[in-house]
Amino acid sequence: MDNTDTYLFNFKGFYFVRSLVNVDLLKNIDDFEIRDDDVFIITYPKSGTIWTQQILSLIYFEGHRNRTEIVDTSDRVPFLEYNIGKVDNYRRPSPRLFASHLPYYLAPKGLKNKKAKIIYIYRNPKDVLISYFHFSNLMALLEATDNLEHFMKRFLDGKVYGNLWFDHIRAWYEHRSELNILFMMYEEMKKDLRSSVLKISSFLEKELSDEDVEAIVKQATFQNMKFDPQVNYQHLLKHEWGTRTNEGDFLRKGTVGDWKHHLTVEQNERFDRIFQKKMKDFPLKFIWDINEEEN
Ligand code: A3P
Fold it and tell me: Which range of residues forms the domain containing residue 189?
C-alpha cells in the first residue's frame, strides 16, 4: 500500500514532512526577505545537515566554541521551511544561519541573485539511501518500511521527503552561476575535517585563530557530537517527534561506505545503472568508500 500521503505533504510537487508543515510559511517562502549576510546550509536529507549546522554554529558563536552558552544547534541554525526550534526563525539578529532541504525551484527568490552565502553538502547517494532507510524506520513522523528493497524503490521513485536525490543536487548545481554557493562533500569532510572547516570559514570570510579551529574540529567529530545533547537532536527526536523504538540515534554511524553492508549485489548494480543514467555528464565527483580513490 502507498502511504505517501499519510506521512508526506505535497507542496508544489515537493514532499515535506506532513506533521511538521506550516502551509502559510511555505506559501510565503518565495518572497522570504534575504539579507546579504544570511548563510544557508542546503542539503538533501541525510547528507550531513546537522554536522554542518554544528560547524557553522561553532564558527559563528564564540559562546558555543568555548561552551559558555548552551543553545541547541537547531536554534542556532534553524530550518527555513519549518518552525521547529524555540526561536523565531526569521526575526533574528544578523548574521542569520539557516538550514534547508528545499529544492532549487522552491528556494526564496532573493537567494538567486548571489545575495546570501550557500553551502551545499552532498553525500554519495548509496550512503544517503542507507542512512535514510534507518532514519525512516526510527522516526515516527516518517513512513517505516519492513525491508530495504521497499525503501529503495520509494527512494528511487522520489516518494520520500526531499523527492529525488538526483533532481535535488542537479538543480542546485546547474544554477550555481546565479548563486553564491560552495559545494562540499560529506566524504571529504570525513577524510579531513580540519581542511573542510578552513574551506568553509574562508568561504564565509570568517577569520579564526588556530585555537578556534582546534575547538571547532574537536567538537564537530562524530564521537563528540553523538553524546552532546546541544547538537545531537536527541531531545527533538525522542520527545517531540517521537521514535518507533528506543534503539537508534540521529547520529547513527557517521561512516563512508556503509551501503556495502546492506545492498545486495543485484541492488547495487541496479543502483549503479540508474546513477549512471541520471548523472551522466554531471561533473561533481563522488566517493563511495573512504579507502577508494574518487570515481
Ligand atoms: P548515518 O545515518 O550514516 O550515520 P542529516 O543531518 O542530513 O540528517 O544527516 C545525518 C547523517 O549524518 C547520519 O548518517 C549521521 O550519523 C551523519 N553525521 C552527523 N554528524 C556527523 C559527524 N560529525 N561526522 C560524520 N557523520 C555525521
Answer: 9-124+164-242
Nearest CA to ligand 1 atom 14: 254
Q: Is residue 119 part of a domain?
A: yes
Atom 25 of ligand 1, nearest CA residue: 254
- pLDDT tens per residue across all 295 residues of the chain: 577 889 999 999 999 999 999 998 999 999 999 999 999 999 999 999 999 999 999 999 999 999 999 888 989 999 999 875 556 778 889 999 999 999 999 999 999 887 899 999 999 999 999 999 999 999 999 999 989 999 999 999 999 999 999 999 999 999 999 999 999 999 999 999 999 999 999 999 999 999 999 999 999 999 999 999 888 888 888 888 889 888 888 899 999 999 999 999 999 999 999 999 999 999 999 999 987 544 4
The verdict on the CB of residue 187 being under 6 Å from ligand 1 is: no
Q: Which atom of ligand 1 is nearest to the CA of 131?
A: 2
Cα gap 1→254, rounded to integer Å: 32
The CATH number for 36's domain is 3.40.50.300
Asked whether 217 lines ligand 1 (CB < 6 A), one says: no
Percentage helix, strand, coil, to 5, in the chain?
Answer: 45, 10, 40
**Is residue 150 included in any domain, yes or no?**
no
Determine if residue 87 is left, alpha or beta; phi over 0 gives left, psi from -120 to 50 gives alpha, anything else beta: beta
Instruction: Confirm whether 37 is domain-assigned.
Output: yes
Cα–Cα distance measured from residue 109 to residue 224, given in angstroms and rounded to the nearest whole number: 37
Instruction: Tell me if 154 is assigned to some domain.
Output: no
What is d(CA 44, CA 289) in angstroms, rounded to the nearest whole number?
A: 19
Residues involved in catalysis: 101
Q: Which atom of ligand 1 is nearest to the CA of 45?
A: 7
Structurally, how many domains does the chain consist of? 1
Looking from the CA of residue 255, the nearest atom of ligand 1 is 3
Q: What burial class does residue 17 get, using C-beta atoms within 10 Å of its C-beta: 0-12 exposed, 13-18 middle, 19+ buried? A: buried
Q: Could you tell me if the CB of 222 is within 6 A of ligand 1? A: yes
**pTM of the full structure:** 0.95
